[in-house]
Amino acid sequence: MASKLDTLEHWVNDVAAMTRPATIHWCDGSDTEYRALVQLMLQNGDLIELNQQTHPGCYLHRSSPSDVARVEHLTFVCTGDQADAGPNNHWMAPAEAHTKIDALFDGCMEGRTMYVIPYCMGPIDSPLSRCGVEITDSPYVVANMRTMTRMGAAALARIEREGSFVKGLHSTGELDPERRFIMHFPEELTIKSYGSGYGGNALLGKKCHALRIASYQARSEGWLAEHMLIVGIENPQGQTHYIAAAFPSACGKTNLAMLIPPEGYRKDGWRVWTIGDDICWMRPGEDGRLYAINPEAGFFGVAPGTSRNSNPNALASIARDTIFTNVAVTADNQPWWEGLPGTPVTDWQGRPYDPANGPAAHPNSRFTVSAKQCPTWSPKAEDARGVPISAIVFGGRRPSLLPLVMEARDWTHGVLMGAAMGSETTAAATGAVGVLRRDSMAMKPFCGYHYGDYFAHWLSFDKAGSRLPKVFHVNWFRKGKDGKFLWPGFGENLRVLEWMIARVEGKARGMETPIGILPANGELKMDGVDMPRETLAELLEVDTQGWQTELHAIGEYLDSFRPRLPARLRQEQQRVAQALDTPRKAANA
Ligand code: SAT
Ligand code: MN
């Protein structure tokens, strides 16, 4: 009988015939293999050793200055029918896309090693997990995939058992932005990426598989693949609620996932458990609740701003065995970025640091570290069943209008809140920074199919027997007239999470408004926070006129997904718009 690995071997042979590598290396994920890869990269300049006294096992990678972020304009979803990719994706016909990118792959690995990386996204024994194989010519990608996924022998064994896996082909190519494509073929469970070594473009298990391809698979299989962190909040009674939260890239998912409770909360016995900081796969369990796993095994976090104040858990995690990408270094060869004490001497491009050249660390510089090194890493993160989700949170960078927190009145309203999400753009993708754009469920760059179908899929979870989580929207980024943030953020965000949990447990009344349920007077615990009453009032105000304009914009945005926009969602938008009009009409009458 033919082994299920035959398909894999055939594919590897086909790829080798096209790319013509000098050697093929099947990755086993062992320590020995990792150490050899590091040695190789230290020799060829892919890695630079950092101070081994202060940062044992830590290395620096400098990418090409034109290859420092995801490239959404070069990222394609290639479905047979263009309509299936939706207006939210760039589309190319599959045959044309294969031809275009295969021409680039032709002979591209000559004289080099081709690495075959079997990996599993999620706990190796979880029915929610999915496997893939990435073929790459980049040892940096192999080293990162080893940290970010369950890579090697165990994954290969699961692939042999199951037979199916996502095929990912990657080559660093010439790093020429003119010869760069990230192509997805969801109908073939295939990814092809050429010309970039940057995380989201090259670590194919991450955005390409765990979000774009997985979201497509999830739709037909009845689950959700989301751009969400997962965090456990344990109250002084020892009960833990798990919260999944969607924010766009570089909006604080890692910080929220590793939150340190304010001192008073710590004294009272509150604890925070980290399950994931970027991706969440959820599926209804037998009890009707949504159960979630983090498909990743590590963090690929934004370095700048990570400090003892903002995220001490992340800082503790990256004190050893970490790969830093595009950070600066100090005189004694320690990694450095804006937000850390000390001074940089060399910038992210390896030049002597000169403030005239901009920040010392690239704003999208990153650390890659195993999740196991996080002091708050939850043992439940390895649970094959996943964790039950009590609340789903949406949020973005909104300098005005959006209140600190609001709760959806039901699932449909929650889906509308997620669909309507907007955020100012960040350095995680190339292009202008600080421009407001709609980013439904923080999935704009990652949803592998038509947003209209995606909204319908979200709505479909609301059915008999389901016990869905409550849905909230938060905004940590509201600014005052002086341009400063109104909310202190970071650890203090626990105050908002505590209110959500009180709502979930039926212990807080809340206050109904046309846009959703807000904390009633006194329900947000503010003791120990030095904040004028007016500031809190501003954070929780409902500006009716501003919201009417917003609802109009949301309606127009939703219409851009016609004819696949679910009518129920547009009706929900109209319901909220009318609720906003009603008090004004009453007042005018
Ligand atoms: O795309 S990455 O995974 O490199 C980082 C991000 O944008 O979230
Ligand atoms: Mn992300």
From TrEMBL:
It catalyses: oxaloacetate + GTP = phosphoenolpyruvate + GDP + CO2. It comes from the Bacteria. Its EC number is 4.1.1.32. The active site is at C251. Pathway: Carbohydrate biosynthesis; gluconeogenesis. It is found in: Cytoplasm. CDD domains: PEPCK_GTP. Mn(2+) binds at K207, H227, D278. Substrate binds at R70, Y198, G199, G200, S249, N364, S365, R366. One of its GO terms (molecular function) is phosphoenolpyruvate carboxykinase (GTP) activity. Binds 1 Mn(2+) ion per subunit. Keywords: Cytoplasm, Decarboxylase, Gluconeogenesis, GTP-binding, Lyase, Manganese, Metal-binding, Nucleotide-binding. Catalyzes the conversion of oxaloacetate (OAA) to phosphoenolpyruvate (PEP), the rate-limiting step in the metabolic pathway that produces glucose from lactate and other precursors derived from the citric acid cycle. PANTHER family: PHOSPHOENOLPYRUVATE CARBOXYKINASE, PHOSPHOENOLPYRUVATE CARBOXYKINASE [GTP]-RELATED. Belongs to the phosphoenolpyruvate carboxykinase [GTP] family. Monomer. HAMAP family: PEPCK_GTP. This is Phosphoenolpyruvate carboxykinase [GTP]. It comes from Dyella lipolytica.
